[in-house]
Amino acid sequence: MATVRRIWCCRVCYKPMQRLDARDLAILRTLCTEGRISKTDLAARVGLSPTPCWERLAKLERAGVIQGYGAQVALRAIGPHVVIFATVELDGHRAEDFRRFEAAMQRLPEVTGVWALGGGFDYLVQVITRDIDSYQRMIDGLLEEEIGLARYYTYIVTKSVKSAPPPLDFLAGL
């Protein structure tokens, strides 16, 4: 029996296929919470026979609505770690300044998320690393690279309060 792995729902595509219907959303919702569900069980859950369900799933993948599959890993099982968010302001605001900073972020494996912001800060950066010293060494290296950091503010996560898939029905206007 084939198995579908957990979907990275937070990466739902911005350009809609045509329009997702209730069954498409049911497939996505189910995969967000039960990524290893079998195709047969997925079909039963959303009220379809297996072949039409699999065809819809393939269509969602081709359209880029489903951008990947993966597992949620319990980081504590891997070893000690710290999750850090940093807000970043750049010295300059030309296209080249943004490209230089973004390229530097792409090179760092401990940087797990970067979002460009509108408002007071230019970026929000998520870092997962072994400890505060590792984070500081990373920051020191970035400052030595002269990638245009004007200032950064560090926020250390003390506990995870909520982690949930996106509100698909709400986003679809249902």
TrEMBL record:
Cellular component GO terms, alphabetically?
Answer: cytosol
Q: Which SMART domains match?
A: HTH_ASNC (SM00344)
Per its record, what are the GO molecular function terms? sequence-specific DNA binding
GO biological process, any: response to amino acid
Recorded coiled-coil stretches: none
Mind telling me which Pfam families this protein's record contains? AsnC_trans_reg, HTH_24
Is rRNA-binding included in the keywords of this UniProt record?
no
Q: For the HTH asnC-type domain, which residue ranges apply?
A: 20-81
Q: Which keywords has UniProt assigned to this entry? A: DNA-binding, Transcription, Transcription regulation
**What Gene3D superfamilies does this protein map onto?**
3.30.70.920, Winged helix-like DNA-binding domain superfamily/Winged helix DNA-binding domain
What PANTHER family would the database entry show? LEUCINE-RESPONSIVE REGULATORY PROTEIN, TRANSCRIPTIONAL REGULATOR AZLB
Question: What is the designated name of this protein?
Answer: Lrp/AsnC family transcriptional regulator of ectoine degradation
Organism listed in the record: Donghicola tyrosinivorans
Q: What is the lineage of its organism?
A: Bacteria, Pseudomonadati, Pseudomonadota, Alphaproteobacteria, Rhodobacterales
